[in-house]
Target: Putative calcium-dependent cell adhesion molecule 2
Amino acid sequence: MSTLGDKESIIFKEKSFGGEKWSLQNGSRYGNQAGALRSLKVGKFCKVNIWDKNGTMQTFLGGEYPDITDKLPNVDIVQAIDVQFKYSVDIRFKHNVQGRDPNDFKLTVIPYQLNGVEIVSGGDYSGVQIPELNPPDSEIVCQISIREIKWPGQVFANGSIYFKYTPSNNTVSYRKTEGWPTNCEIVQDDVSGFTITLKSI
Model:
């Protein structure tokens, strides 16, 4: 574990840490289309949630796991988070604004009483990490805002949305209210992943 960062996890294609490997920092995720992950190393301050294609979810704390195939034979999604959090809402952001580059805008998501996460349009998923709530299936409200990255940094959307973790099936869902900005849409991609799109400015 000496070469593994405290906030880093490494997933491997073969058992006993062999074959191709991928490094994950806390707040990131890996979507494995082939289902071919067989072992992993988890940093001291990390927690890794892994879903199998059959819906099974397993959490791994800091340590080495040379063979995960008995519990997760066909890995689907790998989510790396800080150890003090329970789950992550994985969000990617894009836009449909004509004449603008894919990465012209920035989405900020701020969960209630937590630090915000900034997500540039056109990129991969970023994790909005959520602690365990009481009760565990409580909703948490998140403030969202979208602005252009270039000067003058004009704001084009402001609003809020609710997310909820369901322990019985280890999935994250969302609920829109009147606070959701009308020029945006959100689509649920999988058990923890969502795409937010800025439709117009």
